[in-house]
TrEMBL record:
Region of interest (Disordered), residue spans: 109-137
Highest taxon listed in the record's lineage: Bacteria
Name by which UniProt lists this protein: DUF2442 domain-containing protein
Organism field: Mesorhizobium escarrei
Ranges of biased composition (kind: Basic residues): 127-137
Amino acid sequence: MAVTEDEFERAEKRMASLREAGHAVSARYDRRAARIVVNLNTGVQVAFPVRLAEGLADASPGDLAEIEISPAGLGLHWPKLDVDVYVPAMLQGVFGSRQWMAAQLGAAGGRARSRAKGAASRENGRKGGRPRKLANG
């Protein structure tokens, strides 16, 4: 697939506008806090727990410490883990694929505890529990 000169120029403009919001100039793993610390060209420092990023939660400290920054500064890459984090998405709180993020949100919702949820669960238990799924046949 050939890329035209016009397409190339538009892509460069998109990248430049993304870089204006901030791009990574350095990144490191903070062992004590179990966090990834990213320094941006704007002087802002962003840190996030490794458990928040898809593919990093169960990694060893040695693997987490090896971080590469893309030439444009818009991506972080862990070569031993084959994990990537897109910096503009990270700044928006997105640390993985849509499917992975949805699973994390669903798991957090399932652990939520409230009086209303507890009351509904007890009421459901008095009725015999959750209805069984019927096989379509």
